[in-house]
Amino acid sequence: MTHEDAGHYAAKHPAGTQPDPRIAEAVKREVSDGKITCSAAFKISRDLNAPPARVGTVIDLLEVRIEKCQLGLFGYRPTWRIVKPAESVSPQLAENIKGSLVDNRLPCALSWEIAKKLGLAKMDVSSACETLGIKISSCQLGSFR
Predict the structure, then answer these.
(1) 57 and 11 share a domain?
(2) Alpha helices in 31-73 (DSSP H)
(3) Span 89-107, pLDDT tens digits
(4) Residue 43 is assigned to a structural domain of this protein
(5) HSE-up of 54 (CA within 13 Å, CB side)?
(6) What CA–CA distance (Å, rounded) separates 23 from 44?
(7) Average pLDDT over the chain, rounded to whole?
(8) What range does the domain containing 29 cover?
């Protein structure tokens, strides 16, 4: 989705798709100014034992914008993106990233796994990807593919 598509998130889903009422209620409690943070969406996922993609679908159907990506990729004003290239990338981190690529991109979920495995912040992994020239793909909430 581009910025021009903002506010038309439900169009990503088949016509007639209905939001799960439990998730919708939880999302509505977390929305502020038409937005929900990535971390709040993942808290809903954990609390309701619902897959992040399902929470993301409900967020889309409610036409709520996701902000403050935990990888620093989108939703931070005024720049929208706060991730910066790392000054250096350890061989271990580079190996883990390169070994996890799918179609030359690092899926969001795998970036989180790498961070956990190596005891790093999620944004350390995205910063390393910036340095290595690797794009992160497949947002777990469905914000980008």
Answers:
(1) yes
(2) 38-48, 52-61
(3) 999 999 999 999 999 999 9
(4) yes
(5) 15
(6) 7
(7) 94
(8) 3-67
CA distances from 118 to 68, 94, 96, 137 (A): 23, 11, 9, 20
Instruction: Locate 19 and state its tokens.
Output: 């939001």
Please state whether the peptide bond connecting residue 19 to the residue before it is cis, i.e. omega within 30 degrees of 0: no
How many Å apart are CA 65 and CA 8, to the nearest integer? 10
Q: Is the pTM of this model over 0.70?
A: yes
Token reading at 141: 């909430």
Report if residue 128 sits inside a domain. yes
Instruction: Tell me, yes or no, whether 16 and 62 share the same domain.
Output: yes
Residue-wise pLDDT for 43-67, tens only, equals: 999 999 999 999 999 999 999 999 9
